[in-house]
Amino acid sequence: MQGMRSDLTTTRFYPKQNPAFRFFALWYFTILLIVWTILGHTVLGFEQSYAQPIAGVACGILVSMFLEAVDAGLNGRTPRFLLSKADFLGFLPPAIIPGLACAMLIYANDRIAPVLFAVALSIASKGLLRAPVGGGRTQHVFNPSNLGITITLLLLPAVGLAPPYQFTENITGLWGWVIPAIILVSGITIHARFTGRLPLVAAWLGGFALQGIVRAEIFHIPLVVPFVPMTSAAFILFTLYMIPDPATTPIKPLRQVAFGLSIAAVYGLLFVAHIVFGLFIALACISATRGIALYAAHLRRTFMPRPNVAIAAAAAGS
Asked: Do residues 24 and 147 touch, judged by C-beta distance below 8 A?
């Protein structure tokens, strides 16, 4: 992929730090969201207006270009989207994805402003909420779409989540199983081949099942009830395309497992506390915790160097 910037920090969170993996995964998800949006508004039963995804994508691209141009001007460099065709193509997906995701997952009736707010917040969070990851580099710690949607839901009470039934509202028979199966298989394939996040996905699903069993046992409800959310296409989308964001999740398998289990545990606590939007809030909370941990590790490396490094430095100065 000649011309593609291989020094992007986010490539460090993909297998073998391969920029081609990042490029493919981002465009795969982008194309999936575009197709899903078109089918949603024409076939499946999406209840948002046609204008909302269009406005969301336009907002995402414009805000991304504006912030990139400002950053490039302050640092005396050329904006990434002007470097080459490959760089321009690599620049678009992170702008398009929040635009489509926010328009798809929140319901603001016929209003466009809440969608624009969520998209702008998603894009801005990537530059404002960052944590050190070593080597003098920083990386955003929140899944942009998740954070934008979460804050919008919390700040704007008149805005809610899109109903899960809209993903399969107008289809009948076998298609009600085929569509979630396509999302499931394609998502597992992309994470197995290009992102290396299957341990995280498996841990989240296992943790979700475990907290459901615990709640069923404690509150004496039918065992099937806590598992009902797992049957929706919306849950599968959240599981495969929002939680395992390579740029904002650990790359080591054991840390991925801890990340996934933690989201499930927080979700269970939020559910018991009758707090709505638990999936989105749980992911935001664990992402924030990870960001704090990254800062703590950075401070420890800075002010408490390893003994052998300190000794070597002292010997070199003597």
From this structure: no
